[in-house]
Each structure stands twice: as C-alpha cells, then as structure tokens.
Specification:
Length: 230
C-alpha cells in the first residue's frame, strides 16, 4: 500500500505539471492583466497586511517558538497569500498563491493513491494544518517542496502548461476566488519559489501552516488559544 502511494504521488504531480484535466478549468479572472503586470515580480510580491487569522497564528508561532530552529510560512487560503519567515521569525517575503479548486480543509481518504483524472470535484482541496515540509523528487526528477507527501500536496512554481487556466493572470488578480484552480498543490510565482523559498527550505525543510477556509481556526490550531498566556 505504501509503495502504491509513493508511486501515485509523483504521477499526480506530473499531471499537475502538464496542466491537468478539463474538469479543473474554471472561468478566467474577470480582469485580464497585461503581460507586463503578470510577469513583474513587484506586482506579485507586494507587501500586504496579514488577516486577523494569519496574525493570530503568526503571533502564536513567534511566542511559542513552535517552529523550533526551522524557517516557516503561513498560507492564508481565504486571502490567497503566503507569508514567509526565517528561523528567527524575521519576515523575508510574501507572495500570492494558487490553491485547490475545492473549498475544504481535509484531504479525502486515499486521495494520495489516485491519479488526478480520478479525483472528484470535492477532492481537489488544499488541506489545512501544520506540516513539516521538505524538498523531494517528483516525476521527471524535478524537486518540489512536499507539504504533505501522503496526500500529494506540494508547493512549487506556478505551472502554465494549460493556457486556458490562465494561472499567471490568477496570481496577479486581486480576487481570492481567482486563486482556486489547482488539484490541491500550492503554486507560487517562479522567482519567489527559486530565490526565496528554495534557499530557506532546501537544507532542512521547514514548517508550513495552512489556514482553514471552513473550519474554525482553533479547531485546526488549538494551541492558538494559549496565546494570551504566552
């Protein structure tokens, strides 16, 4: 069973890299940015204020030292943003993210053993929770940051194989709804992935905190309730 899961995960990632199946296509963003807007890293990595939920998790991590001696990131699914910190809690960057097309905070049982073409609409979620992420190989000997290997959820540079999905435009969009397009993997701008995420996480990995979009924050991160005492 474990061997089947190990084989299914790279296969799923390979399909993601090829652009996926037609079932994942959604209506393109209402406003199509120009090519210059889409490709300009300054417009993809503008500094924003974290949401209330993201701020609570960030404060808890800092106060409790939950990350240990590892870098970490907080992914706010509802805002479509990622906030990245080094091991000492210094903010080193942020970027927009693309996430699973389906709303939900859990991975369906056995999803890691399926091909992307076998996934139902409700199974294409980006799970919420605390994950120890490390770089590893996917199909084609390509390295990705595995957030949850068992359920085939990885963080990697945005894939653009399926032009109809218009993923670059979605990254540049100001609407969080436009960020829902993947099968569950987390896409980030290519420059941000190579120049910021990879150097921080390459050696020992790091923590990834994915905020929920349906569950209460305290259900996913119960220790956040200890923040007033820390």
């Amino acid at each position: 069973m474990a061997a089947a899961a190990a084989l299914a995960v790279p296969q799923a990632h390979a399909a993601e890299q090829r652009g996926g199946a037609r079932a994942a296509e959604r209506q393109a963003p209402a406003r199509s940015p120009s090519a210059d807007e889409v490709l300009d890293p300054k417009n993809l990595e503008v500094e924003t204020t974290p949401s209330v939920a993201a701020t609570r998790v960030l404060q808890w991590v800092e106060a409790s030292g939950d990350n240990g001696d590892l870098p970490y990131m907080v992914i706010d699914k509802n805002a479509g943003r990622l906030f990245l910190y080094d091991a000492k809690g210094k903010r080193v960057g942020e970027a927009p993210v693309l996430i699973g097309i389906a709303v939900g905070d859990d991975s369906s049982p056995g999803v890691g053993n399926k091909r992307l073409s076998q996934l139902g609409p409700a199974e294409k979620t980006t799970p919420a929770g605390r994950f120890l992420a490390k770089f590893g190989h996917a199909a084609g000997n390509q390295q990705v940051l595995w957030v949850d290997y068992a359920t085939s959820v990885a963080l990697h540079a945005v894939v653009t194989g399926n032009k109809r999905e218009r993923r670059l435009e979605r990254l540049a969009s100001s609407s969080p709804e436009d960020k829902r397009i993947t099968y569950g993997c987390i896409n980030v701008p290519g420059d941000f992935y190579e120049d910021t995420v990879r150097p921080l996480f390459k050696k020992n990995g790091g923590l990834v905190y994915v905020l929920p979009d349906t569950k209460p924050l305290e259900e996913v991160f119960p220790r956040v309730q200890l923040l007033p005492y820390l």
